[in-house]
Specification:
- The complex is a heterodimer of chains A (166) and B (290).
- With 166 residues, chain A is an all-alpha fold.
- Chain A has helices at residues 2-19, 33-44, 48-64, 71-90, 94-118, 126-154.
- Chain A has six helices and no strands.
- Chain A is globular.
- Chain A starts with a helix and ends in a 12-residue tail after the last helix.
- Chain B is of the alpha+beta class.
- Chain B is 37% helix and 26% strand.
- Chain B has a six-stranded antiparallel β-sheet with strand order 1-12-3-4-5-2.
- The longest helix of chain B is centred in the first third of the chain and has 77 residues, at 22-98.
- The chains are: A mainly alpha (166), B alpha+beta (290).
- At the A-B interface, helix 1, helix 3 and helix 4 of A face helix 1 and helix 2 of B.
C-alpha cells in the first residue's frame, strides 16, 4: 500500500514537473519536484530503502531532463545519505526537516550542475550557476512547504524513528 | 557501502552515449502523457476562468465608470440648459426693459343689436356713436361696437385683431364702448409691408368689397400671388401683424406702381370678440421723470 502511494506520488510529481512547473517558474528558476519528493522520502523514512528509491527517482528525473542520465540519481543518493546523518543529530521537527530539504536540494542541484559542466554540457559561470541552484532550492522548498507540513502531520510516529544507515 | 556503489553505478550511467536512453525516455514520456494532458487542460481552464473573472470585473468597472460619466454629462447639460434659459430670459427682459413703448392687448366683446339697443335705451351710449353701425342689419358689418371704451384706455387708431390678423381699427371711443372700423371699409387706410417685415412699403385701403387694394408698390419690385401683406412693424411695435395675401397683381403698361388686390387674413364673418392693441410707456424708461 505504501509502495502504491509512493508510485502514485511519483507519477503525479513527474507529470507536474513536465507540464506545470514552467508556470511556477520565476524567471529562469524552475522548481524541481522530483528531487524534492525523493528528499522528503529520505527525511520522513530515514531507512536504506528510501535512499534506493531516491536514486531511482533521480534516475527518472534525469530521463525527463535534457542532460545526461545518471548524475542526478547519484547526487540524490549521496545527498540523502548526508541528510539522514544530519537528521540523527539535529532533530526531527518540521522546521529542521524543511531546512534540511532546502540544503539537500541545493546540494543535489550543485552536484548535478557541476557534473553536467564536467561532462561537457554548456553551463553558466560557477557563481551564476550556484546562485541559480540556491534560488531553485529556495523556490522548491517554498512550494513544497504545504506538502511538507501535511506529511509531517500525517507521520507523527516518525519523529523519533531511528535513522537507518547502511 | 552498498549505497556508495549504487551512487557510483548511477554516475557511471552518465558515461553512456547520449542516445542510449532514447527509447527509455520515449517510454517514460508516453507514460506521463495522460497526466500531462489533464494538468494542461486544467491549467487552461483556470486561465480562462481567471480571464473571465478579470473581464467581468473590468467590464463592471468600465460600465460603472461610463455610467458615472453619463450622469456627470447629464448634470452638466441640465446646468447649461438652465443657464441658457436664464440668459435668454435676461436678454429678452433687458431688451424689453429698454423699449420706450411696450405692446399690450385687451380683449373686447362685440356688441350685437340687442346689446346696442339695450345700452342706448339706458343712455350708456350715444346714438351718434353708432354712426356707420347698423345693428338691425344682418349683413356683415363694416363697423362694430365693442364693450371697451375710455374706461379701458381705448384710443382712436388702436388696431383690432383676430388671431394675429388685423381686423380693423378703433375710430370712435366712448366712456364704455368703442367703434371699430373693418379694414374693408372704404375709408380704411394703413401702412403695410409686402412679402416680409422689411419688404417694400405700401398703403392698404378698403374698397367696400371683400378684397382690399394695396397701392404705391413700385413696378420695379417683384410681386407674386400669395405674397403676404404685413402691417408695418415700426408702427405696431408689437411686431408684424398679418393683413392678408396677394390674390391678384397687375402691372399696366407705363404705370409706375402695381395694381394689387389683397384678401384679408381674418374671416369674413363678424367675430364675437376682438383684441385691441394698446401701447404703454415702459416704466423702466420713465422712472423718476415727473
Amino acid at each position: 500500500m505504501k509502495m502504491l502511494g509512493l508510485i502514485l506520488a511519483l507519477y503525479v510529481a513527474a507529470a507536474v514537473q513536465t507540464s506545470v512547473a514552467d508556470s511556477l517558474a520565476i524567471g529562469p528558476i524552475v522548481p524541481e519536484f522530483l528531487p524534492a519528493l525523493a528528499l522528503m522520502l529520505v527525511l520522513y523514512r530515514p531507512v536504506t530503502s528510501s535512499l534506493v528509491a531516491a536514486g531511482a527517482i533521480g534516475l527518472l528525473a534525469d530521463l525527463l531532463g535534457p542532460g545526461r542520465v545518471g548524475p542526478g540519481g547519484a547526487a540524490l543518493v549521496l545527498v540523502g545519505m548526508a541528510l539522514q546523518a544530519a537528521l540523527a543529530r539535529v532533530g526531527r521537527n518540521a522546521l529542521v526537516r524543511g531546512l534540511l530539504l532546502l540544503v539537500g536540494l541545493a546540494g543535489w542541484g550543485a552536484i548535478d550542475a557541476l557534473a553536467g559542466r564536467w561532462l561537457g554540457a554548456p553551463a553558466l559561470p560557477i557563481g551564476a550557476l550556484l546562485g541559480r541552484v540556491l534560488a531553485m532550492a529556495g523556490l522548491t522548498t517554498l512550494l513544497c512547504a504545504p506538502v511538507l507540513l501535511v506529511v509531517h502531520w500525517l507521520t507523527p510516529g516518525r519523529l523519533h524513528a531511528p535513522a537507518g544507515l547502511a | 557501502m552498498m549505497l556508495v556503489l549504487l551512487a557510483a553505478g548511477l554516475a557511471g550511467l552518465s558515461l553512456a552515449p547520449p542516445g542510449a536512453f532514447a527509447s527509455v525516455r520515449d517510454l517514460v514520456s508516453r507514460a506521463l502523457l495522460p497526466a500531462q494532458q489533464t494538468l494542461l487542460a486544467g491549467r487552461a481552464g483556470l486561465a480562462s476562468g481567471r480571464d473571465c473573472v478579470a473581464g467581468w470585473f473590468g467590464s463592471s468597472a468600465r460600465l460603472a465608470e461610463l455610467e458615472k460619466q453619463v450622469a456627470e454629462l447629464r448634470e452638466e447639460n441640465e446646468r447649461y440648459r438652465r443657464e441658457l434659459g436664464v440668459l435668454g430670459a435676461q436678454a429678452a427682459s433687458a431688451d424689453r426693459d429698454q423699449r420706450l413703448l411696450r405692446p399690450g392687448a385687451i380683449d373686447a366683446g362685440v356688441l350685437g343689436r340687442q346689446a346696442l339697443a339695450f345700452l342706448a335705451d339706458r343712455r350708456l351710449i350715444d346714438r351718434g356713436q353708432l354712426h356707420g353701425v347698423q345693428p338691425e342689419s344682418l349683413a356683415v358689418a363694416a363697423r362694430l361696437v365693442v364693450d371697451r371704451g375710455d374706461d379701458h384706455r381705448t384710443a382712436i387708431g388702436q388696431r383690432a385683431t383676430v388671431n394675429a390678423g388685423v381686423w380693423g381699427r378703433v375710430v370712435q371711443v366712448g366712456q364704455h364702448t368703442s367703434t371699430v372700423q373693418r379694414l374693408t371699409d372704404t375709408n380704411y387706410r394703413d401702412v403695410v409691408r409686402l412679402g416680409a417685415a422689411d419688404g417694400p412699403r405700401g398703403i392698404v385701403e378698403g374698397t367696400g368689397e371683400p378684397l382690399c387694394r394695396v397701392r404705391l408698390i413700385e413696378t420695379t419690385v417683384p410681386v407674386a400671388v400669395g405674397d403676404v401683406v404685413l402691417a408695418d412693424a415700426r408702427d405696431t411695435v408689437a411686431g408684424s401683424l398679418a393683413y392678408g395675401r396677394v390674390v391678384r397683381a397687375e402691372r399696366n403698361v407705363g404705370a409706375s406702381h402695381w395694381d394689387i388686390w389683397m384678401e384679408p387674413a381674418v374671416p369674413k364673418e363678424t367675430p364675437a370678440r376682438l383684441s385691441l392693441l394698446q401701447l404703454e410707456l415702459n416704466p423702466a424708461r420713465v422712472a423718476g421723470k415727473p
